[in-house]
Amino acid sequence: MFLPKYPDSPTPPPTYPHTVADQAPARRPAPQISVSTGAVAAVLVGGVVLTALLAAVAVTAVSVAVAAVVLRSMLRDQHHR
């Protein structure tokens, strides 16, 4: 009942003749990329400078937030008197 039914005479798969191309297209050589020590140093210095600027912005933001909380509490105490 659940057995597969196979065809009586299976047909062979079609065959395709293989043709060889005359010549493969010539590949261009990849360009040489050289990284100098000056470029590496510039990237490192740039990364250090950007990290320092980000740290300065973060410290400034924290100090402004603390100052705002202190001023708010001082003003609130003044309004209650």
From TrEMBL:
Disordered, as annotated region: 1-28
Residues passing through the membrane, by range: 38-71
Compositionally biased intervals (Pro residues): 7-16
Name of this chain's protein: SpdD protein
Keywords for this protein: Membrane, Transmembrane, Transmembrane helix
Keyword Membrane applies: yes
